[in-house]
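For the sake of clarity, the format in which proteins appear in this thesis is described at this point. The fold follows as a row of integers, each naming the local backbone shape at the matching residue. One such record is shown here in full, so that the layout can be seen directly:
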Amino acid sequence: MSAATAEIAPHRRRPLYRDLSVQILSAMLLGALVGYIWPQSANTLKPLGDLFIQLVRMVVAPLIFCTVVHGIASAGEAKKVGRVAIKALIYFEIVTTFALILGLVVVNVLQPGAGMNIDPATLASADVATAEADAHPVGFGPFLLSLVPTSAIGAFADGDVIPVLVFSVMFAFGLLAIGAKGKPMLDGIHTVTLVLFKIIGFVMYVAPIGAFGAIGFTVARFGPESLLSLGKLVGTFYLCCVLFVVLVLWPIAWWFGINLFRLIRYFAAELMIVVGTSSSESVFPRLNAKLTQLGVDEPVVALVLPSGYAFNHDGTCLYFATASLFLAQAVGLDLSIGQQLGLLAIMLFTSKGGAGVAGSAIVVLTSTLAATGTIPVASAALILGVHRLLSSAFVPVNVLGNALATIVIARIENAVDVEKLQSELRQGAAKI
């Protein structure tokens, strides 16, 4: 029995108040109410959400290491692992490209920033200065170097998904190469994985508290007036996310025999958690466990899901395309088709940064603006007030896209129990 499967209890009816998704939704509604009534509570509420994210993040890096190593080493065939990885990366690039194109098309049609005529020189702020200091143009060379950690320990200390993933894959192939001698270590890694999933089970008891604090902080800090002041941008972006799910993810799911509505319901608790926390990292362990429970082979989950967290950011790509063109329109820049295609090409690289980390998208966006040299980086100040509202939409799209991607690659590889998949989706999510 896999680590993930061991942590999923058999499906059974339980009182509605014990359903995690109901608890989280209730906590978010209460948090929004508290934040609206007592806006001075922002600084008090913020640590609740941050604490939950940090509790999960402390085990994400070792969990990625353990699941990737155990999954690859258990596969027993390096050729199969390479085949799965190549198919996954091709899938990621195709889908994220569709996301970027859709974002560009929708913003060109609706023109949410047209007529604002903002002078970028008037938009300087401390937050933008910090983001601009962290931003830098990303070329192919720097991107390639960023994949490899400077040290194995440093990769775990920093918690960046991509370097941890690279080290984990290399370690797994090394373990695979020594054959039977590596069996004791493989068993030990499996045991550590069980322990990590137990820790996640404990942490999830405070998930409603984290969601309460995170959404309460957002409402208290930015208030409903933030939504009204840039309502057209927020509305356009939410429309982009809906269109992406309907026009891209839904046909993909249908083609591979997956009911997307049932899949969304199955991961309802996780999607609501990331709406509040704006961090896809906060639900990685539960995604891992639930995908295995759906009947997807552990080696495929262990390889595709972490890779998706590193390279498959569907919602973030929608955000980059929408925000970039909105800022160009807001400051009066009329980008040609060629300039927009150049922007798209750069975003294919920059969208791979900041995997899963809450708040990183604004830094990566400034990197994209710096790389193009056509849109003033200072213009990013325009969206700071509604960035959290935007991330509450694109992070769930990232999570849903990665869950679907894992199942799709498993279907292509015939590495999923289809009967179990359909049965689990019909029954709904079992309790972890």
